[in-house]
Hints:
Blueprint: E1 3-7, H1 11-23, E2 27-31, H2 34-43, E3 48-52, H3 60-70, E4 75-80, H4 88-95, E5 102-105, H5 110-121
Helix pairs in contact: 2-3
Amino acid sequence: xxxxxxxxxxxxxxxxxxxxxxxxxxxxxxxxxxxxxxxxxxxxxxxxxxxxxxxxxxxxxxxxxxxxxxxxxxxxxxxxxxxxxxxxxxxxxxxxxxxxxxxxxxxxxxxxxxxxxxxxxxxxxxxxxxx
Length: 131
């Protein structure tokens, strides 16, 4: 199992994701924005970080760019349901170019989240994982 950092400004979203990941055996660290997320990563490094794109203080795109510079080995999952009347899908596709390993469009179910986590961790049961 892995240590996973969840960066999202919505407390309910953080809680649901935290519970789903913890029930699957992962250690979960949470942060309310990109500033807190980077601080948490320095203090307690995670293998995977889920980053919401629309947050106060430090947007997800900036956070992903900072993670790529400071922690290039961390797998990043960008997530968004849109925000501020913008198309979150456009930003999700664009953020892949900035270094996101995967994207999730909110709302997503726990099975989809856990599937992405398993793939990124290189679960041998995944067909595209190296032997």
